[in-house]
Amino acid sequence: MTAIATNPQVGDQVTEAQRKKYADLIYKKTGIRIPSQKKSLMSNRIRRRLRATGIDGFETYFNTIRKLDSNDDEWVAFVQEITTHETYLFRDELQWDWFRNTFLHDMATAARRGEREPELRIWSAACSTGDECYTIAACIAAVLPNFSQWKIEILGTDIGIGALEKAEHATFGERAMRLVPDSYSRRFFKKHDGSEPTWTAKEILREMTTFRRHNLMEPLRVVPFDLVFVKNVLIYFDSPSKKTVLEHVRKLVRPGGLLLAGAAEGVSDLLGDLERVEAWLFKTP
Ligand SMILES: C[S@@+](CC[C@H](N)C(=O)[O-])C[C@H]1O[C@@H](n2cnc3c(N)ncnc32)[C@H](O)[C@@H]1O
């Protein structure tokens, strides 16, 4: 009997050959490298799609998805399952201190002096469930003077469709909200009491944000941004994929604009002409 199980049960795993095939396919289409140690995690996540689709084995499922277009519903659902969406508001507090006290302060000063229009375009690339976008919006609402007279556009993109649906829904549990200052949660979120309370972002934040599905391995054709967040996503890519992603992202940071990466993202060698401002912050010439 081969190790290929039909109707895989809890605990059944892909064979090594299947793991490699799945990993290669995921890499080719998303740039994400799934290391061999994650075989059991990969198996669990694929098993969820087998249950959802009724397809009766790892091999049959592979043969189904390998032919699918990137926009096919099942491919999109598979990618949503296979990717890691861990995120929360005010993740990496030091960066949010910089965002409020330096970035927004500088933007406000430049606008007051007439050195720039009161406009701000910010992109959260790989925004997952939108926590980063609503943190950006809440900081703007809290500290940017006369922000209602500014044209603010915060774009959140992600490859995961389920994550984006949650982002549109803008409702967060206690875990996601744990670092949000009380004054912010009171002002900018509506609390729903219950055994597991949730908070929904108010309109004032939601009207600044839009979400769309986008694969970072492909170019995004939009007007460049003042600031781009690329956090906790490049860690899933190898060097060639990282390079591709950063080339696309780099084109969307306007001259004199900024790219903010996760502290462990290892991007500094790949950023060419960008000036390093902090270990996690880079400025275009
Ligand atoms: C761990 S979350 C990070 C969320 C947020 N940036 C943060 O730092 O809290 C990583 C996100 O990257 C997304 N992702 C992975 N590969 C992607 C790709 N090729 N294109 C766009 N998004 C991708 C996943 O769907 C996931 O939601």
Which sequence of strands runs across the widest sheet? 6-2-1-7-8-10-9
Overall SS class: alpha/beta
CATH architecture level-2 label of the largest domain: 3-Layer(aba) Sandwich
Number of folding domains? 2
Helix content: 40-55%
Biggest sheet, open or closed, and with what strands and sense? Answer: 7 strands, mixed
- Write down the overall geometry: globular
- How many strands in all? 10
Provide structural commentary.
The protein is α/β, with parallel strands linked by helices. The chain folds into two domains: 16-82, Orthogonal Bundle (Chemotaxis Receptor Methyltransferase Cher, domain 1); 93-283, Vaccinia Virus protein VP39 (Rossmann fold). 41% of the residues lie in helices and 19% in strands. The chain has helices at 16-30, 39-53, 58-65, 73-82, 93-112, 131-143, 161-169, 174-177, 182-188, 203-206, 239-250; strands at 119-125, 151-158, 171-173, 189-192, 198-201, 209-213, 225-230, 253-261, 275-278, 281-283. The strands form two sheets. It has a seven-stranded mixed sheet, with helices on one face. Strands 3-5-4 form a three-stranded antiparallel sheet. Helix 2 runs antiparallel to helix 4 (73-82). The longest helix has 20 residues, at 93-112. It is globular and about 65 Å long. The structure holds S-adenosylmethionine. S-adenosylmethionine binds at residues 30-32, 83-87, 91, 126-128, 132, 158-160, 163, 215-217, 231-233, 236.
